[in-house]
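Data availability (excerpt). The following record was deposited with the supplementary files.
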Amino acid sequence: MANWGGRELGYASDLDLVFLYDDEHPDAGEIYARLAQRINTMLSSYTSSGRLYEVDLRLRPNGESGLLVSSITAFEEYQLQHAWVWEHQALTRARFCAGNEAVGAQFERVRIEILRRPRDISALRREVIEMRQKMHDGHPNKTELFDIKQDSGGMVDIEFMVQFMVLAHSSTHPELTANSGNLALLEAAAKLKLIDGKVGNQVRELYRELRRIQHQMRLNNQTPCRIERDRLDTAPVSLLWNSLLEKI
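Predicted structure:
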């Protein structure tokens, strides 16, 4: 499965891949690990024409210390018993992309089961806010420009709010587990009265514009993507963030 960017894969995006299998052969893990390594090499190796994708494998169970491939049974047990909230946030954007369709169907069953579990909303808020702060700390911006992805009011804030709503409300609104992307999920949340409709529309339009600017800048090899701070009004993002996540 892969995190295809919530249906928003962009220029210069990396691929977050997790390799799953369903095979009881005693050597299955070793065999599929070799296959996964070959796939990773083909996707990420530099050639005279460049490379296809940068691949990130850290979303697999136990991260960099975990096995390169997991059986679907081990993946389900990990997600149910050991995964962190940020790993469940990633599941809101993940879907089967290639391989055996039966394994893909099993993954989707696990994904939906995890996302639709009832959660302590206050505890969820705390963990989402803490992870967002870690991302802020990990991407400091010491310039006078606005980082459209990482700064407060930018893309990551919007994506975190959508992920929070999916995890918080899918137990009572299962339609939120649909793999329809951030714009559609914001619209769905407004229709479900989970967020204010006007503010939701403003955030959707801002997110669409942020994506457009990001595409443009990355096509011109401008990274990180930063613009003048007064170019866009990010107040709707702050307003929605405060209504959803500042209720500890």
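Summary of structural features: The longest helix spans residues 197-219.
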